[in-house]
Design brief:
The complex is a heterodimer.
Chain A (H helix, E strand, L loop, with lengths): L1 H18 L1 E15 L10 E15 L3 E12 L4 E2 L2 E10 L3 E8 L19 H5 L11 E8 L5 E7 L25 E4 L5 E10 L2 E11 L4 E4 L8 E4 L2 E13 L2 E11 L15 E13 L2 E12 L2 H7 L10 E13 L4 E10 L5 E10 L4 E11 L14 E9 L1
Parallel strand pairs in A: 9-13
Antiparallel strand pairs in A: 1-2, 1-22, 2-3, 3-4, 3-5, 5-6, 6-7, 7-8, 8-10, 10-11, 11-14, 12-13, 14-15, 15-16, 16-17, 17-18, 18-19, 19-20, 20-21, 21-22
Chain B lengths: L3 H16 L2 H13 L4 E11 L5 E12 L7 E9 L7 E6 L6 E6 L4 E5 L15 H5 L6 E11 L2 E10 L8 E7 L5 E7 L5 E13 L2 E11 L5 E11 L10 H5 L3 H4 L1
Antiparallel strand pairs in B: 1-2, 1-13, 2-3, 3-4, 4-5, 5-6, 7-8, 8-9, 9-10, 10-11, 11-12, 12-13
The chains are: A mainly beta, B alpha+beta.
């Protein structure tokens, strides 16, 4: 019986394999980030110190495509083997629908390092440790179904298991911890998956999209077993639904992007549970222009407005930092190319007007040849000790990336 | 004696051809150079060569579809093979006459489609000596075109047209185009800065008939001030392939169909 199945499989796959176009590619990479202010909590002087090799297999037939991106990596800061399957999926493309099954990176929304409708997992540690941009995103193990009837495009993403965002490691970064004395900690991951739907189309020359998501917060919340005498802290991922929309198009000399989303905190709709983030609204307006040759400027205004602010204040335990109801952030990015676009200077800066939270990331990247490039950059953080960037204010670092592609 | 008037008309013919205005000449040239066929596909190999002879290669598949008559709307789709750090990147342009283009880019590293600003058509295309305008055309209405004279280029009879920007905001003074009399392809173009100094030189290095359509399959743009030049070869070319309108969409920016990008 099994022999029969094998013969059948071979018969089915042979023509596919015969017609498949196969390409192998990859890179070798060295990535180092060292502290500029003081050592890590674990005493080390590096945020990142790693060699990495990528092997990418791309095989495609007429309607099928297989893509596998695997990284072999060695970390010198105690994690050692960091090999992983970055992406690995099979595509099937039909006339007006397609299917992608496997580990895949999905990015929704329009923000530049500001996430309104991009509900998919990220690697915040990668961003703050000076790793190449592609490591900002983590793949999800999912089935993505695309349908393209005349009137709109649909993208349905179904994941059986939940994958969280990666937050900075407390051994490498100084993270704000309201209860540092409690060492007994457990992590509870959701036992189910999540689902997202994006609907998009052109509306009078503008790219318009609607987003729906039902799943969980990608970053964890913490709950102590007792507020007065805590002995154990549970880390968990609260239930979340997101309803959002975006539009982008030409406006004046540049491109205008508008995006909004309502974060429905399903686990705490009343806002009475201090451990679960309250429901809130996110708004983003962005504008990008190209004022001169090889120069691009991008500006963003981002706001978050908390629902049930009264309930939040009432539920917040004494001694915990108080967040404002409204949070206003502005960001700017400058990108300038030189030397026939082989040298790129890019500076990204983010500043929160309410609490002074800021993050600055300058980077200079040069392609030595068509196969070798290197980048040098820095991450500077600042703000309140409990804020997103403020807690990292002594984690400033300078990084180097060198990659040989083949 | 009876036939004297025939000779007179014959003598007037070249003058009549010259009377074809510079404007019309450039219109015909644009149609022959940037609009032939209903659609077009080419594997484009660009060599960026500096004055010391060091080379960098940009390789892409370019697909173009006309939406109407020559001079009208066009859609472009580009898929990059080289260099390695932009492999699988795709780029899409909706080109409108007398209006800024719409441009989108797909960045495979983060799987994101981004609309990008496109008001500066005079900026470099992927770091080469060609500008976006050189690749997909400059609005004819932006310049005054005057037919200067006739001249031979490499043994071929050409019209020489001088194009001067109407506005004062252009970054060049004027340009001279040698248009092949037989097929209206531009065989040579010189760009002059505002001081009247020649600074860029375009040459059509090889013209081949593809499906009966004369096509510039090798071209060079040289920056005479820096000594940097870009040589472009069109391989795997084809016209009227039936490229679907649906190709020019976010769906296929993310998943470029193999059949179009080989």
């Amino acid at each position: 019986m099994s022999r029969f199945a094998a013969v059948c499989a071979a018969l089915l796959l042979a023509p596919l394999a015969a017609r498949a176009e196969v390409t192998l590619s990859g890179f070798l990479q060295q990535n180092t980030a060292f502290n500029t202010v003081e050592a890590n909590p674990d005493g080390r002087h590096y945020k990142w110190l790693e060699e990495r090799a990528r092997l990418q297999l791309d095989a495609s037939g007429s309607a099928w495509r297989l893509l596998a991106k695997g990284d072999l990596a060695y970390d010198h800061l105690g994690r050692q083997d960091q090999s992983e399957l970055r992406e690995g999926y099979v595509d099937y493309t039909a006339g007006n629908w397609d299917l992608r099954v496997g580990r895949q990176v999905i990015t929704w929304g329009l923000g530049d390092l500001v996430f309104v409708n991009d509900v998919f997992p990220k690697d915040h540690e990668a961003l703050f440790s000076g790793r190449p941009l592609e490591y900002l995103k983590r793949g999800v193990d999912a089935v993505k179904l695309g349908a393209y009837p005349e009137f709109a495009n649909f993208e349905l993403v179904l994941s059986q298991g939940f994958r969280e965002s990666r937050i900075p490691d407390a051994r490498r970064f100084r993270l704000y911890d309201p209860m540092p004395a409690v060492s007994n900690r457990e992590t509870i991951k959701p036992g189910q998956g999540d689902v997202g739907l994006r609907i998009y189309r052109d509306v009078a020359g503008y790219d318009a999209a609607l987003y729906l998501y039902r799943g969980f917060q990608r970053t964890p919340s913490m709950r102590p077993d007792s507020m007065t005498a805590p002995t154990k802290i549970s880390t968990f991922y609260p239930q979340l639904s997101v309803y959002g929309a975006s539009v982008s198009g030409r406006a004046g000399e540049g491109v205008l992007s508008l995006e909004a989303a309502y974060y429905d905190s399903r686990q705490d709709r009343s806002g009475n549970d201090f451990a679960v983030p309250n429901s809130h609204t996110r708004l983003l307006a962005g504008y990008q222009i190209q004022p001169a040759e090889d120069l691009s400027l991008g500006f963003q205004y981002y706001a978050e407005a908390m629902n049930d602010y009264g309930a939040y204040l009432a539920a917040l335990p004494a001694g915990f930092p108080v967040e404002k109801r409204w949070s206003h952030t502005v960001t700017a990015r400058l990108t300038q190319f030189f030397r026939h676009q082989t040298l790129r200077l890019s500076v990204y800066a983010s500043y929160n007007a309410g609490n002074g939270e800021h993050f600055v990331n300058p980077e200079l990247r040069y392609s030595f040849t068509d196969k070798i490039w290197g980048a040098v950059g820095a991450n500077f953080f600042g703000g309140k000790p409990w804020g997103q960037f403020g807690q990292l204010s002594r984690d400033d670092n300078v990084y180097l990336q060198v990659r040989y592609e083949f | 004696m009876k036939r004297w008037w025939i000779w007179m008309i014959a003598g007037l013919l070249p003058l009549q051809a010259l009377a074809l205005s510079g404007e019309e000449m450039m219109k015909k040239s644009q149609a022959a150079f940037l609009y032939p066929g209903k659609d077009f596909k080419a594997r484009v190999v660009m060599k960026l060569i500096n004055k010391d002879g060091q080379e960098r290669v940009r390789e892409l598949t370019m697909l173009r579809k006309n939406l109407g008559e020559p001079g009208g709307e066009q859609k472009y789709f580009m898929y990059f093979f080289q260099p390695a750090d932009v492999k699988d990147m795709t780029f899409m342009t909706y080109k409108y006459p007398a209006k800024d283009d719409d441009r989108w880019m797909f960045i495979p590293a983060i799987n994101m489609v981004k609309r990008i600003a496109a008001q500066d058509k005079r900026s470099s295309f992927v770091g080469s000596d060609f500008t976006y305008e050189d690749v997909s055309g400059r609005d004819l209405e932006d310049d005054n075109h005057v037919l200067e004279r006739e001249e031979k280029i490499g043994g071929r009879d050409c019209y020489l047209v001088k194009s001067t920007p109407k506005g004062t905001d252009a970054d060049f003074g004027y340009k001279l185009t040698w248009v092949d009399k037989a097929n209206f392809l531009p065989l040579k173009e010189e760009q002059y800065d505002k001081k009247g100094i020649r600074y860029k030189l375009f040459t059509a290095d090889e013209v081949t008939d593809i499906q009966g359509i004369p096509t510039v399959v090798k071209r060079t743009m040289k920056n005479l001030q820096s000594g940097h030049r870009t040589e472009v070869a069109y391989l795997k070319t084809g016209y009227n392939l039936g490229i679907e309108d649906s190709l020019f969409s976010e769906r296929f920016l993310r998943q470029p169909p193999r059949k179009w990008i080989d």
